[in-house]
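--- STAGE predict ---
source: upstream dedup step, 1 unique chain passed
mode: sequence only
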Amino acid sequence: MLGRNSYSPGEFDAAAKAVAEALDAGEGPIYFNNLVLALDRRFVHRVRAVAGKTTNPLNELELIAESLMNSGGVFTTNTVIKWIPEQSVLGLGPGDTIALTRDDFERLSTAVLGQLSEFVG
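--- STAGE serialize ---
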């Protein structure tokens, strides 16, 4: 699949609804860590121009998802994104264990959806 730089209103609304429903039902770090993967998957084919290379919610989602899948839940960065923990939603730094709470996921998902809302068309 080619990279994407826009999303339909239906795709965006479905993601927002799924986040709201999951927040109502969930509990525990494993659950909220898995919600990160589910949210990231909905927008996985985004092109770099959508998120850029700076510390922002969408790149934070990408790094957390990548860390959960490939680094045993230990937060890692990459050579593309210029990561500054103090500018992020959750403040995770390299080597931190990822164990999201409901509040963490709610803040991150709200910030991600807010950033993505400019690409809905």
